[in-house]
Write a structure and sequence with these properties.
This protein has 211 residues and is of the alpha+beta class. It contains four helices and ten strands, in the order H-E-E-H-E-E-E-E-E-E-E-E-H-H. The longest helix is centred in the middle third of the chain and has 18 residues.
């Protein structure tokens, strides 16, 4: 690789971290509790447990959004990021399907109290002399109580858990550099995952030495 091409790759990798990243790729810190619906940027993310020197358990979960395809992909990206942090150019990742769980949240009915709106209106008035004048008059409008009936919210939970190894052939060998490079270009359309500074530094080193 020429010095010019190497510098270009480093610039592209650096721009990855300043570009718009997906907020869904992050460590798991929060899950919804109680009755819930919809999705939140605070819910879900990846998990990682070290089993031994060369083996990890990688997981990812989401709540309604993003969907199962993204969940599977983000688990692969996290495996590649971990491999880059450990300085491993390739890794093996257990094939695994995303599990889907369904949740139903029950919300009780409630009443939204009524309220009054006050505004000024210009009222046209004709005087006895025939002259027309406009007088401002305060008008009060009452908005009645509104009852919201009981309802159910249907939610989907997506989870995946996969073994990562540098020594056991759990799958075909994955190229760490290629996976993270594809992620930086948003090749799969799930957003650009923001990886750690340690993984970023390793990617720059590999770029300078032609991977």
């Amino acid at each position: 690789m020429t010095h010019r091409n190497s510098a270009l790759i480093i610039v592209l990798l650096s721009s990855f971290f300043s570009a718009c990243t997906t907020a869904h790729y992050r460590p798991l810190t929060s899950r919804p509790t109680g009755n819930w619906q919809g999705s939140s940027l605070h819910w879900g993310g990846y998990t990682e447990t070290r089993k031994s020197q060369n083996n990890y358990q990688i997981g990812f979960e989401s709540y309604n959004f993003p969907g199962p395809e993204a969940v599977s992909y983000f688990s692969l990206v996290r495996a590649a990021e971990r491999s880059a942090i450990d300085g491993k150019k390739k890794f093996y990742l257990e094939p695994s399907k995303v599990r889907t769980y369904h949740n139903v949240s029950h919300f009780a009915g409630y009443t939204i109290p009524g309220y009054c709106l006050t505004h000024l209106e210009n009222i046209e008035k004709i005087l006895p002399c025939g002259e027309t004048v406009y007088i401002q008059q305060k008008v009060i409008t009452h908005v009645p109580d509104r009852f919201e009936p009981p309802r159910d919210a249907y939610n989907s939970i997506f989870k995946i858990s996969r073994k990562l190894s540098y020594t056991h052939r759990l799958s075909k060998p994955y190229n760490t550099y290629q996976i993270l490079s594809d992620a930086s270009r948003n090749t799969h359309g799930f957003g650009r995952p923001k990886i750690s500074s340690v993984a970023h530094a390793q990617m720059k080193t590999w770029a300078e030495t032609n991977n």
